[in-house]
Amino acid sequence: MTDDTTREEPLLPRLLVTNALRANLDKHMTLNQMADSKAAMIMTAASIVITITLTQYDKLELLTILLLAASGLLAVVFSILAIIPPLHVTDHTNLFYFRSYSDLSEEEFVRQFKAAIADRDKLYDAYLHEIYYLGKHRLTRKYGLIRNGLWTLLIGLLAATASALLLHLPL
Question: Which of the two residues, 110 and 15, has the higher pLDDT score?
Answer without folding.
Answer: 110
